[in-house]
Design goal:
5-stranded parallel sheet; 5-stranded antiparallel sheet; Jelly Rolls; single chain; alpha/beta; 2 domains; Rossmann fold
Length: 437
């Protein structure tokens, strides 16, 4: 295991260096077979192999004096490959902590949109490159325990993923960084979602929290503790809150957004359990010296009919704003902002910001846009540095359809896993269905 007080580096030029436990290198299909824990999205870079593909879909490294990129594995056909890109995945074992990651990129041909992700697919940089252009990117990466498959797991590695047609990774340097954390509490609309390989930003799930590193820059190291399915109650009861509090230091900021799952349970109704749980978090976080910021829940793209928007989260948003006023705390009204945009665009046009299979969860374009709003509000409130350049807008483009298995998958002897289904979505409903308890 690398010492967390030590800086270490990787060069992408020359013979490809593959990852092995305790070291540094590229993650390929062969590495996944040796290290199956990396197939758990929470424990890797959140790029996952579709269940009907073999690990060879990750491609093979192509290295030269200008760095390394990924090429399709000979004999492996990319599923619906047009407009989708193979990520280059680099991993190094570091131990826990906050780290400054410096990556040098080189474009062997023009690339309109190159992306650099750190940790669990958290966006650190996005930009266009001209042929022959190199750029050095520095980003902060949080390495801390995470809940995966219901258990608290140690995470002691930095993951870096480069996406960009014709862009090579020349090198990576990782060094410890002493910076405050921006911690996130929330549900599936905030969490670090995964993407199938090959990658298309319009056809994967994304939480807005995983786009925040791009906007906060070097001021905070983003530590995302949101998970799918969580409510104000289960975030505490399942151990996520205790895990977050163990990392907190005075001066850390904590963004809190819940509501989508609370409203499924009568005892967590907005004016009762939901309000009480949020207030308890606020009291405890302030005692720890952290700075809590409330965020109203992301609005769904839900309609009673094509002309009438159906606001399922109005009461939760109201309670968040009431608590912020009562406790003299800052709040970001994401719900109202998103709802205005949905209503202005209309039901069909708004779908370009959401995952193709539902009306609740964002794709990368939507998460990028929402994170920009949240960060902009933090900036307006004086909680983020206003001096650094603001990232450019990202208009939806490219494939907007999810990857589908081949029609003859059963004849091939493939087994479809239970997890191969969209996240829970409530779509076009007039009333929220209280579950039978």
């Amino acid at each position: 295991m690398q010492n967390t007080t030590q800086a270490f580096s990787f060069t992408g030029a020359g013979a490809p260096q593959l990852y092995a436990r305790g070291g540094s290198g590229l993650v390929t299909g062969a590495v996944l077979e040796r290290c199956p824990e990396l197939t758990v999205p929470e424990l890797g870079a959140s790029f996952v192999v579709p269940w009907w593909c073999g690990p060879g879909i990750l491609g093979v490294p192509d290295a030269n004096a200008d760095g390394t990129c990924m090429r399709p594995t000979p004999g492996t056909e990319l599923p619906d490959g047009a407009g989708r890109t193979l990520p280059l995945w680099f991993r190094t074992d570091t131990g826990p902590g906050c780290f400054a990651v410096t990556a040098e990129l080189f474009a062997e041909r023009p690339c309109a949109d190159a992306l650099l992700f750190v940790s669990r697919r958290r966006l650190a940089w996005r930009g266009a490159l001209q042929a022959g252009q190199s750029v050095t990117v520095t980003a902060l990466c949080d390495v801390s325990p995470i809940y995966a498959a219901g258990s608290l797991c140690k995470v002691e590695s930095v993951d870096v993923a480069l996406v960009g047609d014709g862009v090579r990774l020349r090198g990576v340097t990782v060094a410890p960084a002493d910076v405050p954390r921006l911690c996130l509490m929330g549900d599936s609309t905030v969490t670090d979602q995964n993407s199938p390989v090959p990658y298309a930003p319009g056809a994967c799930y994304a939480g807005w929290g995983q786009m925040m590193p791009l906007y906060v820059g070097a001021q905070y190291c983003v530590s995302n503790h949101a998970h799918s399915g969580l409510s104000t109650e289960t975030f505490r009861n399942e151990g996520h809150y205790e895990n977050l509090c163990a990392l907190l230091r005075p001066g850390d900021m904590v963004l809190i957004q819940f509501g989508h799952n609370d409203q499924k349970w009568k005892h967590l109704a907005a004016d009762t359990g939901y309000r009480a749980n949020l207030l308890r978090y606020l009291d405890e976080l302030r005692v720890l010296g952290a700075a809590p910021v409330l965020v109203t829940p992301l609005a769904r793209n839900t309609w009673k009919d094509a002309q009438t928007y159906n606001d399922l989260l109005a009461d939760n948003a109201r309670v968040v704003l009431e608590l912020a006023a009562q406790e003299s705390l800052p709040a970001v009204d994401l719900h109202a902002w998103m709802m205005r945009g949905i209503q202005a665009d209309g039901m069909d046009a708004s779908r370009r910001w959401y995952h193709p299979c539902d009306y609740t969860h964002l794709n990368d374009f939507g998460a990028y846009r929402v994170a920009g709003f949240v960060a902009g509000e933090l900036r307006r409130l004086g909680l983020l540095d206003g001096a650094r350049p603001w990232p450019a807008e990202w208009a939806p483009c490219g494939p907007m359809e999810v990857l589908e298995p081949p029609q003859d998958w059963e004849q091939r002897g493939l087994v479809r896993p239970e997890s191969d289904k969209p996240l829970v979505d409530y779509g076009m409903i007039a009333e929220f269905p209280w579950p039978i308890q």
